[in-house]
């Protein structure tokens, strides 16, 4: 199992590294924060618990969801107002029926926005309020051909500007909605499982930009 994990990790790492770094195309003044996860002391959560693992591994950031029907998140401990958040993410293990993406305007564990896709081709923008999760602008997650399914790497971008929330997948805007509950807060990463535990997502090239 250990050898299998190392081989899988190496393959996903190569996929992520082959993608264009989001900040490579930005002016230096546009970047508010960035992390390629090469420094394991850069401030993100490092947790190994019964139902989750969040930690640095081989120059990437790993979220492993050990339980079912739960979301797991991690953050660097910062605060921003209007932001554009970008990251590369790829599934390294578990069911394609999952979700993963980015967080903005995190208040606490009970209150924040998150923009996610699934490895079987669905997306959504959601809000966690007082611990209750609801999709914004749609009754359920929506399918999109823009999502590369399975273990492929996807580039995600979330804009949180005023009351407007936008999700871009692989450079294409797929959804926009409105919500004014949260004005500022932390940013972060999220991954979740549904009926089957074991969702494992590897992230790279996290960047926060001025929108």
Q: Return the domain count.
A: 1
Q: What is the top-level CATH class?
A: Mainly Beta
* Residues in β-strands, percent: over 45%
By DSSP (H or I, 4+ residues per run), the number of helices equals: 1
What series of H and E elements makes up the topology?
A: HEEEEEEEEEEEEEEEE
- What class would the helix/strand composition place it in? mainly beta
Report how far the terminal alpha carbons are from each other: 43 Å
The CATH homologous superfamily name equals Exo-inulinase, domain 1
DSSP E strands, number: 16
- Catalogue the unreliable spans: 1-8, 17-25
Overall shape: globular
Share of residues in helices: under 10%
Report on the structure:
This protein is 8% helix and 51% strand. The chain is mainly β and 211 residues long. The chain has one domain: Exo-inulinase, domain 1 (Jelly Rolls). Strands 1, 2, 3, 4, 6, 12, 13, 14 and 16 form a nine-stranded antiparallel beta sheet that branches. The model is unreliable at 1-8 and 17-25 (pLDDT under 50).
Q: Briefly, what is this?
A:
This protein is mostly beta strands and 211 residues long.
Topology overview:
Blueprint: H1 2-17, E1 31-35, E2 47-48, E3 52-57, E4 60-65, E5 71-74, E6 83-93, E7 98-108, E8 111-117, E9 122-129, E10 132-135, E11 142-143, E12 153-161, E13 164-169, E14 172-178, E15 186-193, E16 199-209
Antiparallel strand pairs: 1-16, 2-3, 3-4, 4-16, 5-15, 6-12, 6-16, 7-8, 7-15, 8-9, 9-10, 9-11, 12-13, 13-14
């Amino acid at each position: 199992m250990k050898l299998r994990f190392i081989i899988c990790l190496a393959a996903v790492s190569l996929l992520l590294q082959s993608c264009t770094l989001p900040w490579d195309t930005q002016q230096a003044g546009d970047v508010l924060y960035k992390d390629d996860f090469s420094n394991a002391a850069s401030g993100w959560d490092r947790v190994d618990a019964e139902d989750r693992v969040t930690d640095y591994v081989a120059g990437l950031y790993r979220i492993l969801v050990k339980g079912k029907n739960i979301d797991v998140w991690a953050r660097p401990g910062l605060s921003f107002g209007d932001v554009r958040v970008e990251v590369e993410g790829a599934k390294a293990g578990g069911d394609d029926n999952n979700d993963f993406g980015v967080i903005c305007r995190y208040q606490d564990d009970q209150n924040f926005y998150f923009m996610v896709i699934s490895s079987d081709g669905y997306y959504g923008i959601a809000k966690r309020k007082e611990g209750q999760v609801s999709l914004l602008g749609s009754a359920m997650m929506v399918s999109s051909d823009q999502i590369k399914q399975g273990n492929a790497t996807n580039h995600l971008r979330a804009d949180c500007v005023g009351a407007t929330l936008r999700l871009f997948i692989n450079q294409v805007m797929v959804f926009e909605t409105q919500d004014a509950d949260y004005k500022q807060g932390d940013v972060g990463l999220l991954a979740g499982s549904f009926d089957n535990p074991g969702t494992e997502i590897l992230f790279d090239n996290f960047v926060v930009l001025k929108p």
